[in-house]
Design brief:
Strand order of the largest sheet: 2-3-1-4-5
Strand content: 5-15%
Number of domains: 2
Radius of gyration: 25 Å
Distance between the termini: 48 Å
CATH topology of the largest domain: Rossmann fold
Shape: globular
Number of strands: 5
Helix content: 40-55%
């Protein structure tokens, strides 16, 4: 039985590879390939960490080894029953847990044919992408938003080198395929992965890109900034400032949360590139310079300020006057009609006979009854992250 352990790393196309395995799970089995998933979950989810409730990292090393061994045996038994020859386990978090996983990997290597896969990426672009994913997008923790410079100095750009050094110290290098993702076959990591291990590519792969666009980056910055904060705004002036084009949050995002060449870690990045290059073939080495990918600092101020206002208006105090509530509802109707309707009903409680307020309530209720979640603003703003905003409201 052959095991393929795909270690990622993060931001190197791992999600696209995993998506392809999940999408063609049954067809791959017919070709002798059994996908074990991220955490041995594809044949059932017995443990909470297999269901995504918590994580295997909370297990002690002994518990982790015992449970991973048990699931590996289960997969081997099933694979043999369907005449499969290869089991694939893909999880980019493994790269940061190698020391705790070593007893399991040692057992696996001693009993089966095991191959490891590691994709690395030019650190300049990796650092920017990782910051957008983990520095801004992660709303799972209540914390202050890190600036790009703070994230760069946190040392995450050294994960690849640490992983490769550990694999070398464990004696696994001879059975590890190390690849620069920028040199992937046909510039597609999924196709490259399947080709490297002689696996059947059932269908043309589809890229799964989790990169954020500029409006999403602004949204995640704001959602992290205000997470679990109950804002108490009692003056019209403060609310107007929140909508102002040159508001303080917008300026902070542009000046502190966008990658720049003066991030003061150039030497550290160069050192890490040289460390990773020791494991790459000559024609795949990372370039010996530091140049962040082009970044558009001119965030859409209109979208940014609407999202800023949306988050803040969720915590409006009822003592705010009806005029401000009406103005707020009108500005937010392009993002969330339900929230706009809620604000209008607060305004109606203060001014029950207001014609404009009552007319708007009828209009909003009619749109919602027809299935509209937001109005469209032609030529300027069509739709802004309705799903993400809904998730934020559930967490609030």
């Amino acid at each position: 039985m052959r095991f393929i352990i795909h270690l990622g790393l993060g931001k190197t196309g791992s999600t696209s590879i995993q998506h392809h395995f999940r999408q063609h799970f049954e067809a791959l089995q017919e070709q002798g390939v059994l996908y074990a998933g991220l955490r041995f979950e594809t044949l059932g989810k017995k443990e909470a960490w297999q269901r995504g409730a918590g994580t295997y990292t909370r297990l002690s090393e002994a518990e982790l080894t015992e449970q991973f061994k048990g699931f590996a045996k289960q997969y081997v038994a099933y694979a043999e029953s369907i005449n499969a020859h290869t089991i694939v386990l893909s999880n980019e978090t493994f790269s940061a847990q190698l020391s705790r996983l070593k007893p399991f990997f040692d057992w696996l290597v001693a009993n089966f044919a095991v191959e490891f896969s590691v994709y690395v990426r030019d650190i300049d672009s990796w650092l920017v992408s990782a910051y957008e994913q983990w520095g801004l997008k992660d709303t799972s923790k209540s914390r202050n938003v890190m600036t790009f410079e703070e994230f760069a100095k946190s040392g995450r750009h050294r994960i690849a080198g640490d992983c490769l050094n550990q694999l070398a110290s464990f004696g696994y290098l001879a059975q590890t395929h190390i690849k620069n993702m920028h040199h992937a076959k046909n510039k597609d990591v999924t196709e490259d992965f399947f080709s490297t291990f002689n696996l059947p590519l059932i269908a043309p792969p589809q890229k799964t890109n989790e990169a954020t666009n500029k409006r999403q980056r602004a949204f995640f910055y704001l959602s992290n900034l205000h997470r679990k904060k109950k804002l108490k705004v009692s003056s019209t002036l403060k609310k107007e400032q929140a909508l102002h084009r040159s508001g303080p949050h917008h300026q902070k995002f542009v000046t502190q949360c966008r990658p720049t060449q003066d991030a003061l870690i150039e030497e550290s990045i160069l050192k890490e590139k040289r460390r990773v290059n020791r494991f790459l073939p000559a024609d795949e080495k990372l370039p010996d310079d530091v140049k962040f990918k082009a970044v558009d600092n001119n965030i859409d101020a209109f979208a940014f300020n609407l999202m800023d206002s949306h988050i803040k208006y969720e915590h409006l105090l009822e003592e705010l006057d009806s005029e401000l509530l009406l103005e707020s509802a009108s500005k937010l109707e392009y993002i969330d009609l339900n929230l706009s309707l809620k604000l209008l009903k607060l305004a109606r409680a203060k001014r029950p006979n207001g014609k404009v307020i009552n007319d708007k309530i009828k209009a909003y209720e009619a749109l919602l009854a027809d299935g509209h979640k937001a109005k469209e603003q032609k030529g300027r703003l069509k739709k802004i992250l309705s799903a993400a905003l809904g998730n934020l409201r559930k967490r609030a």
